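Workshop exercise sheet. Pairs work together: one partner reads the sequence aloud, the other fills in the structure field after running the prediction. Swap roles for the next sheet.
Pair: D.N. / O.F.
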Amino acid sequence: MKVTGLITEYNPFHNGHLYHIQKSKEYTDADYIIVVMSGDYVQRGTPAVIDKYLRAQMALEAGADLVLLLPVAYSCASAEYFAIGAVSLLDKLGIVNSICFGSESGNLTTLFQIASYLAEESLEFKENLKHFLKMGFSYPSARNKALLSSKEFSITSFPSSKEPKELSNLLSEPNNILGIEYIKALLKRNSSMIPVTIPRAVSHYHDTILKEKFSSASAIRLLLKQTESFPATIAQAVPFSIFSLYQKYYHKTYPIIEDDFSLPLYYQLLKEDSFSLTEYQDLSSDLSKRIFHELDHFHSFSSFTEHIKTKQYTQTRISRCLLHILLQLKTQDYTAFDYIPYARILGFKKDSAPLLSAIKSHANIPVFTKMAKAENQLQESGKKMLKQELFASNLYRKVQEQKFHISLPHEYSRKLLIK
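Structure field:
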């Protein structure tokens, strides 16, 4: 049995994701595709535009055999924690042969060389990183500069005359960054899973204009948020098999945006001070002070993010930090969990019974389908993570209910998705 794992957000699902599933099967000759998917909150520091259940259903319709939930502590974390959480989950299933990810580079050798160097974190690299951070560069920029200025680091994939510019561009692309982190996580876990990369198809990650066939998730989100009636033009950007799902639930359960969470975020911020804010993941002392002292300028989630950002603290970093405060995700939680203490199944295909049997036999963590039965299978760290997940999911659900005047099932009564 050949099993390939995909680490995804599907925020929202589009033709590029279908391409990823299809090419992953082709590149790895996989019998089954397991998708690890972010839940109701995503890595860029915002709520998902469509809830996890509908996105999981889309993934199954598009060819995934099994969809697992990436716990919220990791789904809205930095690239490093996002990657190590997802890789750990796949690794602990005990049956995954490879992970396949998209990248702008498409050059696995180059990504592997960079990841191998960064996984070691030499003294020279650490000193360079501190130097550039003190100069006021954001962490991603400081890391890139530290890498480029490290004498120990060399890469044969780039001619020396072009190396700095090309390597800097490579390190600035979001899918390359995640790909490097996936490989780093594999190396740190000494995992037997093999990394495979597929060149990203056509559109750029940050493109905001809908394009024929391959459009970015950013462009689709923008269109869904800006229109009052269903934007039928997205038909060109999403698989035919799931277009009806987009139509059916538009303005019934989605779109959800960060400003839908403005009031609960402000409530949480009012409870904090500059010292207590430092307990949350990704919040430095300086950033905590900035958030606390600028609180009078809070009008909405998005506008406050825009107000707080600086050259050193990017908009994504700020948004992610605010989401950590909203969801009460603290730094100590990440070390307490030993990464992933359980696997929660959101849905699967009926004909994937052999895959489920193999997971049951080989996984070294509890695997469950029903929240009601989960606690009896978990140790204290797992129960704490599950409690975080429940809080975050219930908050998202209530926002949906109030925005669209509907009633949705509680997490404990949600039915497993079976295709």
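Discussion prompt: Strands lie at 3-8, 32-38, 41-42, 46-47, 66-70, 98-103, 194-199, 343-348, 367-368, 417-418. What would you look at next?
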